Amino acid sequence: MDFQDQIKQLATRVDKVLPQIHTEEATKNALIMPFIQILGYDVFDPMEVCPEFTADLGIKKGEKVDYAIFLNEKPIILVECKHHIEKLDPHNSQLFRYFHVSDAKFGLLTNGKLYRFYTDINEPNKMDEKPFFEFDITQAKEAEIEELKKFHKSYFDIDSISNAASELKYLNEVKTLLFKELNNPSEDFTRYFAKQAYPSIVTSKILEQFNPITKRAFNQIVNDLINERLKTALNKNETEGEEAIGELAKSNILPKGESEIVTTEEEKEGFLIVKSILRQKLSTDRITYRDAKTYFAIILDDNNRKPLARLWFNSKNKHIGLFDQDKNESKHPIEKLDDIYNFSDQLLTTVDYYLEKSTS
Predict the structure, then answer these.
(1) Looking at CB atoms within 10 Å, which of 15, 135, 164, 233 has the fewest?
(2) CB 104 within 8 Å of CB 78
(3) In this structure, are residues 126 and 138 in contact, taking their beta carbons and an 8 Å threshold?
(4) Contact assessment for residue 76 and residue 70, using Cβ atoms and an 8 Å cutoff
(5) Does the pTM of the predicted model rise above 0.70?
């Protein structure tokens, strides 16, 4: 199972177990320790993940931060944990106080659902008030999981993460500001456009008139961009159009309620079975999926034009779609998920077609 699948699996677990978790200690054991383990660190090795890490602060001795993650015998990430029902406030945390007396370059504040990563962009050796990266594991997008992957033990590089942290932080802040302005334009934001569009002096009355106009204009621009993308995709191919809608829904561009695409647990399990078969010949990170309205596509290198299989699970009679060397699809009925293993040879043969093309 690759990194992305592990995070998604943990996200599913988080949703299920939250009602059963009643203490901070339970939050650590059930949610946060598995997360640290997915990042590649051995939670049972105190030389790698040190619980109750002590970093003496001035006259205050013996205070502890929940975990310190070590790499090459040096602390790289300080982790402070909260009960999953608590809000995350860095000002009230040991993390904020300990950062400047530790060699760790990054701080992580989490309640097992929300994860906030901090560093010292604004002032050296002083943790920033705002995180440079944060995500909700139950709603993590693929782009966020890719950013998180940089903290994995196998890929961890302080300079690389630090260089990207500043841009990531300000990108997220600008996105937040824009989202806020588009939903409720401020006076300054409205005035900027009113002064350029209105031919005379912009009075308070004119500003009041332009506020809903500004909001509506931006909403129309967003809708036009979405429609243009869908139109381009539909002109190419009806199949690609469905997948484009699926991608828009998955990336949360489409408003909630406007997508009829739902990725089921059965489809996810079928995907993992196909992946387990194909890993004999492919690296698992090359095997991805895109859900469409009528089928679940399993593809190579995240490329619609490299189909590996399709799961037709949206009706009473389930089928698996297999592809020949000319990418012609043939459907085969299955009664249960384990039946997918019966098509292992055909699936591996499809992989051979792509591998042969890449070497020719």
Answers:
(1) 15
(2) yes
(3) no
(4) yes
(5) no
